[in-house]
Amino acid sequence: MTGMAEDMKISPVLITGAAGFIGFHLARRLVAGGAEVVGIDNLNPYYDPGLKKARLALLEPEPGFTFHRLDLCDRAGMEELFRRHRFRVVVNLAAQPGVRYSLTHPHAYGESNITGFLNLLEGCRHGRVEHLVFASSSSVYGANVKVPFSESDPVDHPVSLYAATKKAGELMAHAYSHLYAIPATGLRFFTVYGPWGRPDMAYYSFTKKILAGEPLPVFNHGRMKRDFTYIDDIVEGVVRVMALPPAPDPGWDRKNPDPATSCAPFRVLNIGNHRREELLRFINVLEDCLGRKARLEMLPFQDGDVAETYADIGRLSALTGFSPSTTIEEGLARFVEWYREYHRA
User: Is the pLDDT of residue 304 over 90?
Assistant: First the structure.
């Protein structure tokens, strides 16, 4: 774990999506380390706003944390935010998430993940931000089948609009990095789970259904594999990366360009557990944690999904000296403990 002195070096920090799953955990970690953090969130109803408000209720009393209810798409509001604060580091975790939701609500992704991110990039440009760290996603690997997924792999074939907007965000950040010398790091998160998580994620809804005795919808007949990554590992990786802004890669070859780096101060990094877990095994571990058996409803493969995710984390480990290591047995036990307490289940 990095310490208070290291966390203070990156202060003040803007965290977008601060009432969200990852944003909440990151903000708590940073203020505990003495950093000054400004958090913004629009508290939209994509999932229960009560959960977002419960996270904020823990954050807002913390010394060093300031919250503004603000939407990234509010251009004037974002301009005013950057006029009022001089951020050294910006961490963009606000986005419209969800692969399946993108099949039915496509415009939400263009507004939040494209227009909203553009407003943030403009703020970083005019605010002379020292490091922009932004959430991308393992979904950008799309139709790729070579595993583990490497940042040097081409990611030109997304299979969902959500993935396409995340790839677009990487391209937009690179353009701003090139044009305005903004150091920028895109982090491709792999299936994040843990306490205070998102109710739309499978592990959360599975827990609710198992306790209620309801059947679990299991797509691709359970043959999905995921690189499940525990929230504390994600946060540790983010904090370490925040303190290490990229510089232009002197070895970058324009004739054979590496998608992971650039002649601009830009890079992308995977953050995953570097192991594949079959969905059925994940469900079995969850059953053990809950002390109940699940009723499985086997379903075919769904549009927008990918069969397997698996992160190559060599670049992250080489840069930060850190590798995620929490097992699903440990992580799910902590999640279930939190779930029972929060939901009085």
Answer: no
Look at the alpha carbons of 3, 6, 19, 140 in this order and tell me if their dihedral is positive or negative: negative
> Residue 4 has what pLDDT?
52
Strand spans (E) along the chain: 13-16, 37-41, 65-69, 89-92, 131-137, 184-189, 192-193, 215-218, 225-226, 229-230, 266-271, 277-278, 295-298
Residue whose pair of structure tokens reads 């932004």 in the numeric block: 134
Average pLDDT, integer, range 65-85: 98
- DSSP class of residue 308 equals B
Q: How many CB atoms lie within 10 A of CB 93?
A: 25
Distance CA 311, CA 318 (A): 14
**Catalytic amino acids?**
162
- Distance CA(72)–CA(134), nearest Å, equals 13
Residue 307 pLDDT grade (very low, low, confident, very high; cuts 50, 70, 90): confident
Say how far apart CA 286 and CA 283 lie, in whole Å: 5
CA pair distance 36, 68, nearest whole angstrom = 14
How confident is the model over 24-63, as pLDDT tens digits? 999 999 999 999 999 999 999 999 999 999 999 999 999 9
Element (H, E) at 234: helix 231-242
- Crossing angle, helix 328-343 and helix 279-290, to 10 degrees? 50
Q: How far is CA 300 from the centre of its chain?
A: 27
A 10 A CB-CB count for 245 gives 20
Closest-CA residue to 341 (of 62, 54, 57): 54
